[in-house]
């Protein structure tokens, strides 16, 4: 025995082997249960102790021995549900004392130890101090009891407790769900009973909300302190992982799905080989019905903003494909779409799926989509998905020209306030719109847009005669003073795309992007110079290539570009001298420095500073020199440079012996 009351690993193994070998050592069960309970409590109180690994190993050994013992008792019939009913009657004193045979007492004791072990496993699953391997082993043991406790059926008694323990636990972790999904959610009966259990928990949460309670009544280890928000978040984490299991088998006419309780049943395997099993389509249909009911019940809860965004973000991938009739979510999605802001952006995915694949009619879809176009979209978290859906929504060639023009014009206006990555998205979408809808190509270059606006509004914007003259090409000298001229007829603040006058305007915003400060944007505008009406020579741009852009991605791409010519200096020609001689500047030789002012003569202040050794940075001051400077005014620059070098050499070599030129020495030798 250890000092903390725990059994050593060697003792645990010895007790476990004796328990599995002979029924005479059945009293080892209380000893192993006591060690298991103390080991869990020891890890909880000493989670940072160095002996945690050894206690965890002994805990796992005790768990495996007890699991094997109780599974053997279940398979032998000693722990059958019929005996449990008799034990409950004995416990409630409904059975006469004479009927309490030793066998009944033994069964009551055995059921008590079995329930105690199940309680310890449930506590271990949600204990924050236990290791991940211990929690996974506890879940596996409970799932084995679920399969074996009820012969040929699924034991709801244990599985409902497991699901309730998980969703009401404060220490609920993602790895618990990942273990269930990886090992058990591929079986259709596990998914079905999970939906039933989660629905009960949701109904319980609704009753708790109505009563104004914040805590569940039950086990203190898991349910105490779990409020309604935590419960809803945990339920969502489990519910979002329930998907329709894949069918197995090569036969498409009689597909089958695997179930957990009959996975190792030989009789079931024989029936499956013969094809005499329930059609998988019927099972999948029933599972979809349960998933639909539990989701509708869950969406009636008062969801938090964070949870609301999670539901909308996974609606098109993990929720709608698993429902019997996805149109039951039409009210929920349309209400979310009408809220505006980020909620509307996130609801667009699910609503778009209902419209395109499930026949939902929503006449106000494009008006709401047009109203969502705001500058904040270019920095939103889900901007990538939104712009992809926006491009898909405008893909149909049956859209009216005024609608396509309105979206192109508003996106162009937003590009002036967007970051460079947003401007790239706008250019790509406008490119696709011009290619899909040739009727709006007039927006590329429209000279008489202002004149047409004047013709349609002669009373508000100027005389009709001057507008007609402008349409005919005759400009009036007084046209520049009219109020309507030079003004874009597009109404940016108009929420209805039919009334924004987009077709009377032009895409001058895209031309403005040609002078964008980012070279990536200005280069990309050139893609609109092609004749997009010729569909055979052009192709649509994939918005996915631009929707995920940012400053970082643009900088990374710009750094990778290979430059053929890199400007290293501002000179137009290779300079041969330091300063140019021919210049009209006040001081000769400083024409290459525009914007600088230099003074050739010393002022009185400069002379005073020169005497004291101080110089001004903006002036050239003549410093006194020990040696006179040579006069090079009549010399060429190259000769003057040679003389200057010779003078410097002579000045620096006064104390050194001057070297004689070799040619001079040779001449002296010949004379001799």
From TrEMBL:
Residues 601-672 are annotated as: Disordered. Residues 601-617, 624-639 have a biased composition (Basic and acidic residues). InterPro entries: CCAAT-binding_factor (IPR005612), Noc4 (IPR027193). One of its GO terms (biological process) is ribosome biogenesis. GO terms for cellular component: Noc4p-Nop14p complex; small-subunit processome. Residues 344-524 form the CCAAT-binding factor domain. PANTHER family: NUCLEOLAR COMPLEX PROTEIN 4, NUCLEOLAR COMPLEX PROTEIN 4 HOMOLOG. Belongs to the CBF/MAK21 family. This is CCAAT-binding factor domain-containing protein. It comes from Ceratopteris richardii.
């Amino acid at each position: 025995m250890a000092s903390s009351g725990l059994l050593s690993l060697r003792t645990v193994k010895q007790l476990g082997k004796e328990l599995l070998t002979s029924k005479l050592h059945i009293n080892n069960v209380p000893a192993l249960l006591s060690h298991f309970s103390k080991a869990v409590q020891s890890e909880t109180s000493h989670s940072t102790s160095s002996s945690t690994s050894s206690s965890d190993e002994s805990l796992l050994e005790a768990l495996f021995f007890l699991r094997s013992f109780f599974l053997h008792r279940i398979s032998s019939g000693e722990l059958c549900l019929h005996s449990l009913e008799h034990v409950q009657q004995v416990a409630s004193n409904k059975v006469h004392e004479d009927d309490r045979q030793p066998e009944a007492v033994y069964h009551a004791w055995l059921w008590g130890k079995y329930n105690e072990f199940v309680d310890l496993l449930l506590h271990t699953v949600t204990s924050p101090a236990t290791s991940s391997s211990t929690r996974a082993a506890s879940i596996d043991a409970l799932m084995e009891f679920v399969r074996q406790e009820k012969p040929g059926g699924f034991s709801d008694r244990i599985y409902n407790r497991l699901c309730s323990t998980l969703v009401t636990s404060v220490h609920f972790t993602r790895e618990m769900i990942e273990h269930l999904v990886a090992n058990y959610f591929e079986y259709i009966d596990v998914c079905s009973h999970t939906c039933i259990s989660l629905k009960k928990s949701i109904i319980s949460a609704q009753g708790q909300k109505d009563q104004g309670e914040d805590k569940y009544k039950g086990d203190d280890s898991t349910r105490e302190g779990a409020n309604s928000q935590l419960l809803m978040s945990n339920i969502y984490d489990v519910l979002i992982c329930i998907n329709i299991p894949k069918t197995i088998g090569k036969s498409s006419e009689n597909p089958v799905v695997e179930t957990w309780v009959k996975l190792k049943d030989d009789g079931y395997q024989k029936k499956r080989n013969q094809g005499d099993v329930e059609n998988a389509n019927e099972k999948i249909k029933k599972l979809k019905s349960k998933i639909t009911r539990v989701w509708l019940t869950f969406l009636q809860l008062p969801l938090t903003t964070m949870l609301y965004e999670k539901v909308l973000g996974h609606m098109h991938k993990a929720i709608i494909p698993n429902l019997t009739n996805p149109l039951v979510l039409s009210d929920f999605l349309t209400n979310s779409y009408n809220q505006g802001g980020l909620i509307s952006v996130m609801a667009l995915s699910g609503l778009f799926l209902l419209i395109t694949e499930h026949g939902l009619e929503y006449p106000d879809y494009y008006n709401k989509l047009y109203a969502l176009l705001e500058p904040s979209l270019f920095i939103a978290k889900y901007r990538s998905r939104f712009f992809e859906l926006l491009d898909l929504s405008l893909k149909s060639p049956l859209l009216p020209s005024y609608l396509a023009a309105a979206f192109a014009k508003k996106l162009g206006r937003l590009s002036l306030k967007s970051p460079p990555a947003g401007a790239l998205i706008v250019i790509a979408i406008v490119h696709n719109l011009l290619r899909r809808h040739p009727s709006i190509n007039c927006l590329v270059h429209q000279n008489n847009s202002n004149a047409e606006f004047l013709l349609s509004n002669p009373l508000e914007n100027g005389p009709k005669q001057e507008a007609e003259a402008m349409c005919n090409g005759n400009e009036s000298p007084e046209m520049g003073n009219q109020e309507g001229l030079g003004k874009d007829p597009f109404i940016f603040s108009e929420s209805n795309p039919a009334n924004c006058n987009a077709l009377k305007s032009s895409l001058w915003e895209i031309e403005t992007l040609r002078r964008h400060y980012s070279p990536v944007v200005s280069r990309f505008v050139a893609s609109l110079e092609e004749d997009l009406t010729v569909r055979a020579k052009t192709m649509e741009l994939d918005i996915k290539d631009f929707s995920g852009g940012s400053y970082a991605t643009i900088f990374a791409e710009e750094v990778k570009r290979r430059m053929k010519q890199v400007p290293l200096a501002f000179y137009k020609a290779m300079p041969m001298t330091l300063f140019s001689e021919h210049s009209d500047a006040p001081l000769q030789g400083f024409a290459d420095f525009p914007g600088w002012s230099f003074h050739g003569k010393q002022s009185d202040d400069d002379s005073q500073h020169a005497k004291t050794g101080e110089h001004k940075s903006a002036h050239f001051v003549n410093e006194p020199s020990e040696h006179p400077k040579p006069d090079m005014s009549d010399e060429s620059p190259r000769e003057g440079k040679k003389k200057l070098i010779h003078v410097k050499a002579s000045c620096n070599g006064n104390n050194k012996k001057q070297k004689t030129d070799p040619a001079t020495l040779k001449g002296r030798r010949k004379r001799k």
